[in-house]
Amino acid sequence: RLVRFLAKDGRIYYGDAILASGITDVAKATQARVIEGNIFGKHDVTHQVAEVRLLLAPLAREDIKTIRCLGLNYAQHAEESQMPLPKYPILFYKPVTALTGPLDIIPVPAPAQQVEGLDYECELVAIIGKEARDVPESKALDYVLGYGVGNDVSHREWQLKRGGGQWALGKSFDGWAPFGPGIVSSTIIKDPQALRIGTKLNGKTVQDSSTRDMIFGVAKTISFLSQGTTLLPGDILFTGTPQGVGSGRTPPLWLNNGDIVEVSLEGIGTCTNKVEYAQSTPKL
Question: pTM above 0.90?
Answer without folding.
Answer: yes
